[in-house]
Amino acid sequence: MLAPDLRSALGKISTATLTTVLLKKGIRRAWMQGPKPMASGYGRVVGEAFTLRFVPAREDLATPESWASPRSTRGAIEDMPQGVVAVADAMGVAAAGIFGDILVARMKKRGVAGLVTDGVMRDLAGVLAVGLPTWAVGAAAPPSVAGLTFVGWQEPIGCGGVAVFPGDVIVADDDGAVVIPHALVAEVTKLATEQERFEIWAVAEVEKGVALPGLYPPNEATRARYEAESKRE
Questions:
Q1: CA 204 to chain centre
Q2: What is the pLDDT of residue 60?
Q3: Strand 45-56 and strand 85-89: pairing?
Q4: Which of 52, 137, 177, 201 has a CA positioned 20 to 30 A from the CA of residue 215?
Q5: In terms of Cα–Cα distance, which of 4, 54, 59, 21 is closest to 178?
């Protein structure tokens, strides 16, 4: 489980900062292309990834009867621990809604922190009324079986062009959703926290009239001045 101190720290770090820090660590594919907040005011959501995977619809499997199968989205939701972010690989399919208001309401009841998918939602008005922070590509009326087959959960997936493994950490805000590899969470959190501190200081310097060259990114003189002023605080 994600340590409370890391969850708290990540809740104060923007996805923009995280993508920059991850890029410096060699991770170029961290921001999911497509998912966007379905409503304003979610704030920042942080949690370990609980993955769900869909494949193209196959007529003998993608049926309304499949919703009652133990291997179904319903079964997956009942396996979700409190505090996770559900991440659903819908392959970018935009003509079949993978979740509606009832399923999302159950996620919220179980304490799920949020939902991210490169697919679409259905019953959008109901989903928004539930209030579970949701990042998706959009909305569509048809159910999931109109275009997708659900095949499993808690296995590696691709979502929005990014590889997501169970236990990776998801941070989502107004700029979208970012994946932090599990093994890098502590280091990235530390580096990103320091990056945010520096950027707050740099903004103040810009407001004083300081030119950008040598300030952002900082040269040695700027870095030394920043560190000296930080020690006096």
A1: 30
A2: 82
A3: parallel
A4: 177
A5: 21
Angle, helix 220-232 to helix 185-207, in steps of 10 degrees: 90
59-64, Cβ contacts within 8 angstroms, sequence gap of 24 or more: 61/149, 62/144, 62/145, 62/146, 62/147, 62/148, 62/149, 63/145, 64/143, 64/145
Region 32-41: mean pLDDT is 96
pLDDT digits (tens, 9 = 90+) for 164-201: 999 999 999 999 999 999 999 999 999 999 999 999 99
Give yes or no for residue 121 having a pLDDT over 70.
Answer: yes
pLDDT range class, residue 63, cuts 50, 70, 90: confident
Q: Distance between CA 212 and CA 198 in Å, rounded?
A: 14
| 8 A C-beta contact, residue 120 and residue 136 | yes
C-alpha 85/C-alpha 82 separation (Å) is 9
Residues in the chain: 233
**Rounded Cα distance, 154 and 173, in Å:** 23
The domain 4-182 belongs to what CATH superfamily? Ribonuclease E inhibitor RraA/RraA-like (3.50.30.40)
Q: How many CB atoms lie within 10 A of CB 7?
A: 19
Token pair of 164 as six digits:
């997501």
CA atoms of 70 and 210, how far apart (whole Å)? 62
- Listed in order, the ranges of the chain carrying CATH 3.50.30.40 are 4-182
